[in-house]
Amino acid sequence: xxxxxxxxxxxxxxxxxxxxxxxxxxxxxxxxxxxxxxxxxxxxxxxxxxxxxxxxxxxxxxxxxxxxxxxxxxxxxxxxxxxxxxxxxxxxxxxxxxxxxxxxxxxxxxxxxxxxxxxxxxxxxxxxxxxxxxxxxxxxxxxxxxxxxxxxxxxxxxxxxxxxxxxxxxxxxxxxxxxxxxxxxxxxxxxxxxx
Length: 195
What we know:
By secondary structure, the chain is an alpha+beta fold. It has helices at 29-40, 80-93, 122-129, 133-136, 155-164, 177-183, 186-190; strands at residues 3-6, 9-20, 45-50, 54-56, 67-76, 108-114, 193-194. It has a single domain, classed as 2-Layer Sandwich (Alpha-Beta Plaits).
């Protein structure tokens, strides 16, 4: 359901993945995620639901300490680019440095979806979804790709997402959360431990 009529106009439903595996100012990653959630809410961004926090192994394997991951379901009255800019501003304010792709980080806020948007277009989104694993670590998009091209590949995204948006369907593939979860290896799902 991409838009919800409310007293203050139309909202678009957005999904965000949260993660952290480095302490910030001596505080545990889950404290940083709670702080991120507090900063996320604005007049234009309202949190509808937040999953439990999960501990998960760093991805790729051996790239750092375990992560704390969660997902949030949002009602937003801003476009995808503005929402992404808001997420990046929160990350920067909390000390995130974008030095290494898939490196350890104090906070990571990934925009997973914004309504029914498939950005920048279906062909480009499909190409990034199909990118071979060896190239994923080397290439980063220079534009917003939605839904996030790795959403179906990662248990640390899908398990928390299933708690806040169990009925969500990928607008480009038509796959629901339960189908995407069922396609993942059991070991990947079992590696997530609720905090």
